[in-house]
Design a protein that fits this description.
With 145 residues, the chain is an all-alpha fold. α2 (16-26) runs antiparallel to α3 (31-44), α4 crosses α8 (119-141) and α7 runs antiparallel to α8 (119-141). The chain starts with a helix and ends with a helix. The protein has one domain (2-141). The protein is built from 8 helices and no strands. Helix content is 78%, strand content 0%. The protein has helices spanning 2-9, 16-26, 31-44, 46-62, 67-79, 81-97, 105-114, 119-141. The longest helix is centred in the C-terminal third of the chain and has 23 residues, at 119-141.
């Protein structure tokens, strides 16, 4: 039951994986179980987030909310689409994988939606990034680094 709490805690935008792992370790849970629950929870939430953010961006375009900014982003994406598509997966991995404030799954899902990444690519990038971030946060929580 405690691992389910960690899984749910890793889905919340305020704590995400970066907060769930230290909390799980403070609860004296098995660190491997905490790591797995945190990575799974933080990654599972990425699919509905990408799809939701796509609808939000579409709604903003239809209602002409921030249309200037959206058009500017679209032009930038179309100008460098080939390079950006190749680098977007690596970019999402690094963005999520380096555990800094505001660089988690929720923000990466928004970026993936803006870049119009395929859901599978966004999910893969978030998963690999969460694995990296989970290892780093676990090592920091145990004062190894």
């Amino acid at each position: 039951m405690d691992y389910l709490k960690i899984l749910i805690l890793s889905m919340i935008p305020v704590t995400e994986l970066r907060g769930a792992i230290p909390i799980g370790i403070a609860m004296n849970l098995n660190p491997i179980g905490v790591y797995i629950a945190s990575v799974v929870g933080s990654t599972l939430v990425s699919i509905p987030l990408v799809l939701t953010y796509r609808h939000i961006v579409k709604f903003m375009r239809d209602k002409k909310i921030l249309i200037g900014l959206l058009n500017k982003i679209d032009r930038k994406i179309e100008n460098s689409m080939k390079k950006m598509k190749a680098m977007s997966l690596v970019g999402i991995i690094l963005f999520v994988g380096i555990p800094l404030p505001t660089t988690g799954t929720w923000t990466a899902a928004a970026i993936a939606s803006i870049l119009r990444m395929r859901v599978v690519e966004a999910f893969t990038g978030v998963f690999i990034g969460n694995c990296m971030a989970g290892i780093i946060v676990s090592l920091i929580s145990y004062h190894i680094i």
